[in-house]
Amino acid sequence: MLIKLKHSSTQSLGRLLAGLVVSVVASAAMAAWPEKPITIVVPFAPGGSSDIVARNLAPMLGERLGQAVVIENVAGAGGMLGTQRAVRAAPDGYTILLGSGSEILINKLINPKVATDGIKDLSPVVFVGTGPMVLVGKAGLPANSVADVLALARAKPGTLSYASAGNGTPMHVAGELLKMRADVFMTHIPYRGAAPALIDLIGGQIDLGVSTLSAAQPYIKSGKIKAFAVTSAKPSELAPGIPAMGQVKGLEGFDLGVWFGLFLPNKTPPEILQKVQTAAQQVLADPQVKKRLAEQGISASGASAAELSKFMATEVEKYRAVVKAAKITAE
Fold it and tell me: In the chain, what percentage of residues exceed pLDDT 90?
């Protein structure tokens, strides 16, 4: 016996079958991913901390995912050009951002007109790691501790200068937090990166600097500059022999570091997010990768996307309080 279907029923059945086909095709595509090389966007120039971290992860991440992972440096506008490149990329898993505090959180705080919002426009994948910054001084500065530095600052307000890797960087925020907590005034000198700031510090053109540990360590070890404290609550195993800012009298609890994470564009399929997270966690658990990152002043994490999101929610409030109180702007 033949069964005649009404036109509307035929249309409904057609839509159902079409939906099933799309679902099957999409599932097959997810299973096959990745089918071509993957790009990690580094929003800063080659040779900086972000670039070094990304290049330490890329080879083994490629092995885990079964495709080459290449680095693309997109520098400019304090990391925003590279961040925008990642935000605007197709959400297909082939463009990953190696992000840090500057471009993900701070830039939006110091310049609300910035179109990209690192929290809203990107999906966290994995927490790569954290590291302390370090307060350093020129070799000839008559100070051997944080207490000595603060005494000099109080004796001659405004005469001491301190350098950072740029306006609105974590180093700048840490310097302003120190000024606020200690109630001292020092003149901020922003540079375009840690390297030129350290060169002027070695040359004696500036008195102090807040730097990433990786950039400053060679000069600390050679005696070309002095190290007063890491910017953490407790001493860091990455910087043996250097006191912690958070254990200085009057600065108890001081804790502000640099951090890195992997991010994907919003609307990236959760199956791809999970694949990248699992592969990255395996890479970050590798002893050789941990060792190489430690040599760069970074303690490998490997925490999940959810844990990275929670960390960022806490960190952005730290930044917000300092940016507001110190009136830090993009200019």
Answer: 79
